From TrEMBL:
The chain crosses the membrane at residues 30-49, 55-75, 101-119, 125-143, 150-169, 175-198, 219-241, 247-267, 279-299. InterPro entries: Protohaem_IX_farnesylTrfase, UbiA_prenyltransferase, UbiA_prenylTrfase_CS, UbiA_sf. It comes from the Bacteria. It is found in: Cell membrane. It catalyses: heme b + (2E,6E)-farnesyl diphosphate + H2O = Fe(II)-heme o + diphosphate. Carbon 2 of the heme B porphyrin ring is defined according to the Fischer nomenclature. The gene is ctaB. This is Protoheme IX farnesyltransferase.
Length: 309
């Protein structure tokens, strides 16, 4: 397969960018998930943090996520232009110069890391810097275009925010924050591969070696099922290590059963239309699933603080 290579063709003739175009560079949907999981990590961390400092820490993580999103759009403008779901992004749509996106992303990234280090500690800042580097360089510039395991390895970038939030409070990395990382890390492959199953033509046109395009639909469905089992098992670890109580456990079991049901339904499909429909269903469910898991974590924590358990 001939993969699309990075080029500078998309930049000429761009109109002056609007405020909403710069906001789009931040990938606000992705940012919202990053902020939420980081906030959970910060709130679950022992010892507590000054509310103002905590707010600054979350703001820094949000800015860092936005900066890495801008760097991703800068580098991926060529392939964004040929994918239906990304063709209207500011650079491929001709509303912004590519170099402007690069400068914007770099400024936000450096600012967020420096401020987080000054406001909290340099372990948290270092983790944030590594997260930005991992997403912008390791995933975007290397893995995404070179291997069908791009999502598996690259998923680490989206899994670091709760560890950053935890480190901002404690200045440490603990087993609890690693478990939070693991849940998101194992959630990423079935989430994105479900999307890839019904967006194969987009990824094929862009030359991105997503698993369905390289290994085929059957192998992808097997991998989704395997990772789904590992994911649900990982969500039970907080209860197993005594980090969480029955409220969280009940939510993890109930929502995990739903995830496995949809993954199994996808695995059993044989007809293309049914497979794409099942893939869309699993992808949609996976979005709410992760949110519910992390909401259950914080709900359980609050219930314990109030003495309800």
């Amino acid at each position: 397969m001939a993969y699309v290579h990075h080029s500078n063709e998309i930049s000429t003739g761009a109109h002056e960018a609007r405020v909403e175009d710069y906001l789009a560079l931040l990938k606000p949907r992705v940012m919202s998930l990053v902020v939420f999981t980081a906030l959970v990590g910060l709130l679950l961390a022992p010892g507590g943090i000054n509310p103002f400092i905590g707010a600054v820490a979350i703001l820094c993580i949000a800015i860092g996520a936005g900066g890495s999103g801008a760097l991703n759009m800068w580098y991926d403008a060529d392939i964004d232009a040929v994918m239906s779901r990304t063709a209207n992004r500011p650079i491929p749509a001709g509303r912004m110069e590519r170099d402007h996106a690069l400068a914007f992303g770099l400024v936000l990234s450096v600012f967020s890391v420096a401020l987080l280090g000054l406001a909290t500690n340099w372990l948290a800042a270092g983790l944030l810097a590594f997260t930005i580097f991992f997403y912008a360089v390791i995933y975007t510039m290397w893995l995404k275009r070179s291997t069908p395991q791009n999502i598996v390895i690259g998923g680490a970038a989206g899994a670091f925010p709760p560890m950053v939030g935890w480190a901002a409070v404690t200045g440490t990395i603990s087993i609890e924050s690693v478990v939070l990382f693991l849940i998101i890390f194992l959630w990423t492959p079935p989430h994105f591969w479900a999307l890839a199953l019904y967006k194969q033509s987009d990824y094929g046109a862009a030359g991105i070696p997503m698993l369905p395009n390289v290994a085929g639909e059957k192998a992808t469905k097997v991998q989704i099922l395997v990772y789904s089992v590992l994911l649900v098992a990982s969500t039970l670890v907080p209860s197993w290590i005594g980090f969480m109580s029955p409220i969280y456990t009940a939510a993890a079991v109930a929502t995990g059963a739903g995830f496995l049901w949809f993954a199994w339904a996808l695995f059993r499909t044989t007809e293309t239309v049914a497979m794409k429909k099942a893939g869309r269903v699993l992808f949609t469910y996976s979005l709410s699933y992760l949110a519910v898991i992390f909401l259950a974590l914080i709900t359980d924590h609050v219930a314990n603080m109030l003495g309800w358990l």
